[in-house]
Amino acid sequence: MIMIDQLFGSKTRVKLLQLFYSNPNRSFYVREITRKIDEQINSVRRELSNLLSIGIISSDTNNNRLYYEVNQSFEYYKPLREIFGTSGLKAKVSSTTVSATQSQDLKILGNVDLVIYSGQFTRDESSGIDILIVGDINQTQLSKYIEDLEAKESKDLRYTVMTPREFKYRQQVNDRFLALLLSSKHQVLVDKHNTLGPKTPKNNQSEEE
Fold it and tell me: pLDDT value at position 173?
């Protein structure tokens, strides 16, 4: 971790890169960032300015608040995500980022197949919800999880829970709710069975004949 800090200039910068690359479709305002990475606001502002000038992140204003998010068009987006994304460097950031801690938090809900953030998390209200959870879920644990997450995010969250069977059916009938969610700006936290990913063709004898 010390070597990474030296390579990228500062501990704050490394934490920022981890936060942004672990949440490629999420936007954050300064005080929210400061709280999540537990660094001084002056240091955060300075490093945000540096990352913005390089083009690693972008910014825009919404409701008189300045938001920052990772620039997915940046020339070195993919290699940096390999380093700082959820499968790469594990910097110490809030459990609300997609991290090992987040995954552990979700395990208490039961058998979780799919989790998607949208709405307030990605500043795209076209989906109409903030969280979709698919799986065999413990309702008591779910209520506690949402309550804790609302406290961390300082906002009321709209969420929908589906069983795997219901989700599969809605996919098959091209359900409007799912279509709106998946066409909106969203972030996939969990996709246990690669439900939203490309299908891998099955090999069989007839293909070889």
Answer: 96
